[in-house]
């Protein structure tokens, strides 16, 4: 697929998707939403890629949905429109590979949703994050979904209904991002995390991600049953045997992803 609103790059076993509407502050048009999902799917299907990074071109990460697409739709069309914008949550959750959001300056509304949807997030220390749709009479209900359980009712309601921004340090304290770094170190630190993940067993990483998302939908006691099932499967893989052998032989493992 030829992309116009995102840029797709590969650097060894790390894939990079760049939101590329800098003049529109990387707001999500319908085209960009479709291309974003297609780029994620392409990298997930590429067996040479182990980790995916998503970043924004220009001055900001993303300031949400392109509201020039808002006027004149029917209820059915609005349903289709917002479903397209939120599809990235399901796409990322269903991917075999970890996705890292690399955000700078502003991650707002759907841009904040992308940070929350990603498996990991590294942001610059000057980043502001907000679920601000309430300020124009709408709601960031989609972006709130991945973080509501962590935040609890009070903070979730504040983010959903106040329209206030939070700074990078508060986002880190709330557990919404993994790391806050100086702006001039953002790419370096994000790539370091990507490299750390890429150096692990692809099989264990894939199954670990699978475990997290499936576990979220299970009752507490069922999670332990599923844990035993998944761990038993992992123990029978070539990567598990290689990892244990390498540890005992004091050498670096050679992963096969099997």
Automatic annotation (TrEMBL):
Matching InterPro entries: ClpP/crotonase-like_dom_sf (IPR029045), Enoyl-CoA_hydra/iso (IPR001753), Enoyl-CoA_hydra_C (IPR014748), Mitochondrial_ECH-domain (IPR052377)
Keywords per UniProt: Fatty acid metabolism, Isomerase, Lipid metabolism, Lyase, Transit peptide
BP GO terms, sorted: fatty acid metabolic process
Signal sequence interval, chain numbering: none
Superkingdom of origin organism: Bacteria
Gene Ontology molecular function terms on file: hydro-lyase activity; isomerase activity
Cross-referenced Pfam families: ECH_1
Function, as annotated: May play a role in fatty acid biosynthesis and insulin sensitivity.
Record family assignment: Belongs to the enoyl-CoA hydratase/isomerase family.
UniProt name for this protein: Enoyl-CoA hydratase domain-containing protein 3, mitochondrial
Organism for this UniProt entry: Desulfococcus multivorans DSM 2059
